[in-house]
Structure formats: C-alpha cells, structure tokens
C-alpha cells in the first residue's frame, strides 16, 4: 500500500514531469512576461509547486537578482529542489504557508502567484501577506482559472464525479474554478491593498501526451479525498475517459483553458 507521503512524492514528480509541460509552463512564461521583470529584481513565487514560475523568472532577473519559491507541500518543494537549476538568479526553495510567510516587510520587488489563490482557504489574508512583503511600488502578477466552461476538458470529470460520488463532491471538484468571476476577484485584490489593477482573460491549449496522463493527474490530486475502492475507481476512470473522447486528437488530449491574469501594484506611499 502506498502511504500518504509516498503518494505525495509520486504526484509531485508526475506533476513536474508531465503536467507542467502540458499546462503550466506556457502560463508561467506568460505571467513572467506580463510582470516585466528587470535585472536585479527580487521575485517571490507564492504557491510555487514544483517551480515553473520561479524557473521562468530566474533568467529575467539575472545573476544579480533573487528568486524565492514558497509552497506548503513538502513533496512539491523537494521536487523543485531536485530539478536542474535554470540560468540566471539562484532560486531559494522554502516550505511555508502563504498566509504566514517568513519574510520581512518590503522584501520583494515582484510577487507572482500562478493558479494557487483559489486553493488557499483564507484568500484575503494571503493577499495581505503578498502586499506586506512587497516594497512600496512593487508589483503583483497573479492568475486564476476562469469558470469550468472556459476549461471544457474538466466538464466530463465533473459530470462523472457527480454520477459516481454525488453533487457535493462535484461542487468540491469545481473549487478550482471558484474565482472565475472577475468582479469577485477584483474585490479580493482591492481588499488586499493593491491598486492599478488590470485583469485580462487569456486562453491557452492544454496539451497532454495522452488522455490517460490527464486522468492520472486528476486522480493524483483528488483520489485521497475520494477514497475509492478499486472497482469504484475503475468505474469512475472509465466514465471520465469516455467523456474526454471529443478532446482526443492523434492520441493526445487537447482542450482550451481560460484564465484571469492580473497585474497590480502596491502603492508607492503604503
């Protein structure tokens, strides 16, 4: 039997080896480019996972800059540390809580946060922490998914989850899209103390090597909560695979993913 720690390590490794390239690498590069990083700047990647954004940032700030990634998952941080170092700034990997970050006030020029805010129970506190660690005039770059309808490859999973596990579990699964409302997202960021807020909607294509790769990613993320017996798991997976058939192209799985991408600033006088 695989214990929780082993499951987390396997999931983190699979995420780094497959899911980052399929989904997150392009979004990371996009977020970094929108932040207009400059040589020598200090950058914090909040909820860094296995490090896609931090790695994308390092060449932009160069060897005189600083990049720090913080994540609450020990397995994700361990995986980030194990991957080859990119060119540019050295990267410091810290295990920690986004709502209680171990950094002094005004420590960073830029804070980046990719597809993580919706996972944090106390989102207002996390945004206030991001504001706190930014220098006056510092910049925030943040992205969250739009609604599930803007990521249609997830609808067959949600439907299968409802059929096999009920409406409550479908609702929990939909939590990844809980900041899909732009007005709610803007209110949160304003409440965090930020100004000059610009939110744009972007679409990129998720491109998995296979349907099975995507399904495995979803099981990695959700299976511990679903607690399925083997036969129930097999039935759920078969249902999901069938629902994903329209998105299979030459063996690969491709579908659009829509996100809100945010640029904001801490006041120069705060």
CATH-defined superfamily: Vaccinia Virus protein VP39
Q: What is the tally of helical segments?
A: 9
CATH class: Alpha Beta
Helix content: 40-55%
Strand composition percent? 15-25%
- Report on the biggest sheet: 8 strands, mixed
Total strands:
8
Order of helices and strands, N to C? HEHEHEEHEHHHEHHEE
Distance between the termini: 53 Å
What is the rounded Rg?
19 Å
Named at the architecture level, the CATH assignment is 3-Layer(aba) Sandwich
What does this structure look like?
The protein is of the alpha/beta class. It has a single domain (4-266), classed as 3-Layer(aba) Sandwich (Rossmann fold). Helices cover 44% and strands 25% of the residues. The protein contains 9 helices and 8 strands. The protein has helices at residues 4-35, 52-61, 74-82, 123-133, 155-165, 167-173, 182-191, 211-226, 230-243; strands spanning 42-46, 66-71, 91-95, 108-114, 134-145, 194-208, 248-249, 252-266. Strands 1, 2, 3, 4, 5, 6, 7 and 8 form an 8-stranded mixed β-sheet that branches. Helix 5 packs antiparallel against helix 9 (230-243). The model has no long low-confidence stretch (mean pLDDT 94).
Salient structural properties:
Rossmann fold; 270 residues; 9 helices; eight-stranded mixed sheet; alpha/beta
């Amino acid at each position: 039997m695989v214990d929780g720690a082993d499951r987390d390590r396997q999931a983190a490794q699979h995420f780094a080896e497959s899911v980052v390239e399929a989904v997150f690498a392009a979004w990371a590069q996009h977020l970094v480019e929108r932040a207009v990083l400059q040589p020598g700047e200090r950058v914090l990647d909040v909820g860094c996972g296995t490090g896609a954004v931090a790695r994308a940032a390092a060449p932009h700030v160069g060897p005189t800059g600083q990049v720090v990634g913080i994540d609450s998952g020990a397995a994700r941080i361990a995986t980030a540390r194990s991957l080859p170092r990119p060119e540019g700034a050295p990267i410091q990997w810290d295990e920690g809580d986004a709502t209680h970050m171990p950094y002094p006030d005004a420590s960073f020029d830029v804070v980046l946060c990719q597809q993580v805010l919706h996972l944090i129970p106390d989102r207002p506190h996390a945004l206030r922490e991001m504001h706190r660690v930014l220098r006056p005039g510092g910049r925030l770059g943040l992205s969250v998914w739009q609604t599930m309808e803007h990521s249609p490859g997830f609808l067959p999973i949600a439907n299968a989850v409802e059929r096999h596990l009920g409406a409550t579990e479908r609702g929990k699964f939909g939590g990844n899209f809980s900041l899909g409302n732009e007005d709610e997202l803007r209110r949160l960021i304003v409440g965090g103390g930020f100004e000059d807020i610009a939110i744009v909607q972007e679409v990129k294509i998720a491109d998995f090597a296979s349907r099975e790769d995507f399904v495995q990613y979803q099981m990695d993320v959700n299976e511990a909560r679903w607690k399925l017996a083997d036969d129930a798991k097999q039935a759920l997976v078969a249902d999901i695979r069938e629902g994903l058939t329209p998105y299979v192209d030459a063996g690969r799985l491709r579908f659009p993913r829509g996100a809100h991408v945010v640029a904001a600033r801490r006041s120069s006088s705060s």
